[in-house]
Design goal:
six-stranded antiparallel sheet; three-stranded antiparallel sheet; globular
């Protein structure tokens, strides 16, 4: 069985200056709750749904780093996720979907990536 990735169009979310550094914000992008982060390492977007609890809370997580890797810790049970890949650094095999981000003319845009 092979997994293919569907990539959607870019969706404008907000102006870059509306994002507080090192804090997350939730956004609805094409019907998907996304957690958006602006860190010293760049812009990151992951699903807002915590894969461990099923709650939509990752945008409220604690932003930090582990070994130079930009991370967010779930506000519920504190599992830490790599913002670059979506991989959980505490529980092997657990991941959260990661989406593409860019800033175009001062507007933050997100492009969803979903497995088919």
């Amino acid at each position: 069985m092979s997994i293919t990735m569907t990539t959607h169009a870019w969706t404008a979310v907000c102006r870059l200056d509306r994002l507080e550094p090192e804090r997350g914000v939730a956004a609805l992008v094409d019907g998907v709750q996304v957690a958006l982060f602006h860190t010293a390492d760049g812009l990151f977007a992951i699903d807002n749904r915590d894969p461990v609890t099923g709650a939509y809370v990752l945008s409220r997580g604690i932003v930090g780093s582990r070994g130079g890797v930009p991370t967010v810790a779930s506000p519920l049970h504190k599992q830490v996720y790599d913002l670059r890949t979506g991989e959980c650094l505490d529980l092997p095999g657990v991941t959260v979907a990661r989406h593409e981000t860019r800033c175009h003319d001062g507007i933050v845009e997100v492009r969803l990536r979903q497995e088919d």
